[in-house]
Amino acid sequence: MVIASPARADFRVCNATQNLVGVGIGYRAKAGWITEGWWHIEGSSCKTLIEGPLSSRFYYLYAEDAERGGRWDGPINMCVAEKEFKIAGVTDCVARGFQRAGFQEYDTGEQASWMVQLTDESTTGGASAAPGTNSQ
Prior knowledge:
Blueprint: E1 10-15, E2 21-29, E3 32-41, E4 45-51, E5 58-65, E6 71-72, E7 76-80, E8 85-88, E9 99-107, E10 114-120, E11 127-129
Parallel strand pairs: 1-10
Antiparallel strand pairs: 1-4, 2-3, 2-5, 3-8, 5-6, 5-9, 7-9, 10-11
């Protein structure tokens, strides 16, 4: 007997590599910009970073390969920390005792649910993120 579950609304990241990956996310909340991390995602698995229907159109992602040192990044500078973090604001990262990292922007098109898949880039030896998708 197969039991169908209702479609979930959330922001998920799937790690299609064989290595442990650390992920940080950035988004605009009512009070301003927030960055949060680290989610540790084992190889060939997924994790939900934001549960429930998405409240923003744009989300920003930064990830590091904990074993090989590669990263998935982008041009949008936001703050991160060495250990678990939730940081308000994206300016003066270093002056406030944080590190600055380049995040990749994902336009969810105001969908209730979104999934990003992190994959290995075989041609350059670096890492790249596959485009996000509406997982409904």
